[in-house]
Automatic annotation (TrEMBL):
One GO term (biological process): L-histidine biosynthetic process
Protein name per UniProt: ATP phosphoribosyltransferase
Lineage summary: Bacteria, Bacillati, Bacillota, Bacilli, Bacillales
UniProt GO molecular function: ATP binding; ATP phosphoribosyltransferase activity
Enzyme class: transferase
Length: 208
């Protein structure tokens, strides 16, 4: 068996993903969400796990630095990476939404300013509606932008809705359903098909 490299997203969904990995029966010494270590192996070294920033996971997989990635659909959509998406792990469930102040109208003839961590996703959504927008790329605390006049609206992920609520914002338009997905490098899918399929089967059994 050839070794496969698996890129895991750091941050919010890491703990559920690590739990699911452990349920496959593979044991990765020292792998936990707060670890500062970035590379881990299972006991027989058939799987190498690398821990990377969520938005970088699709890039690692597209470029072949990782054979497989486990990451949120939000980051897959934003990265626009050319990879195969083969499994919905049904964890980290949330949605993309346009949010703003209650009663605000999203449709307008005026150019709208949208603050977001996901400018590609926002541009695609508004382009489909024929609405002209300008994006302001932020790296977090996006809900602040409409409150202080940095943007008209935000495009962000909404999970429990509590961040919006606590900042007096509401969902104005629901967008895509998001969850953690398994993605595969296109070349690895051909050259390491047995290893990739074996790993997917292990994960599927763990999910059941
Ligand atoms: C995400 C997202 C929202 C929040 C939504 O931010 O950008 O702010 O979670 O979750 P909720 O609906 O359960 O409140 P994250 O926690 O990743 O922090 P950030 O603002 O630093 O990006």
């Amino acid at each position: 068996m050839e070794q496969i490299t698996l890129a895991l997203a750091k941050g919010r969904p890491a703990s559920s993903t690590i739990k699911l990995l452990e349920e496959t029966g593979e044991h990765f010494s020292e792998l936990h969400e707060d670890s500062r270590k970035l590379v881990f192996y299972n006991e027989d070294k058939t799987i190498k796990v690398i821990f990377v920033k969520a938005l970088d996971v699709p890039t690692y997989v597209e470029k072949g630095a990782a054979d497989i990635g486990i990451v949120g659909k939000d980051n897959i959509l934003e990265s626009q990476a050319d990879v195969y998406e083969l499994l919905d792990l049904k964890i980290g469930k949330c949605m993309f939404a346009v949010a703003g102040k209650p009663g605000q109208k999203v449709d307008s003839n005026q150019k709208l300013t949208i603050a977001t961590k996901y400018p590609n996703v926002a541009k695609k959504h508004f382009k489909k509606k024929g609405q002209d927008i300008e994006t302001v790329k932020l790296n977090g605390s996006v809900e602040l932008a409409p409150l202080i006049g940095l943007s008209d609206f935000i495009v962000d992920i909404v999970e429990t809705g509590s961040t919006l609520k606590e900042n007096g914002l509401v969902v104005l338009e629901e967008m895509d359903y998001i969850s953690t997905r398994l993605i595969v490098n296109k070349a690895s899918f051909a050259t390491k098909s047995a290893e990739v399929q074996n790993f997917i089967n292990q994960l599927k059994s763990a999910m059941e």
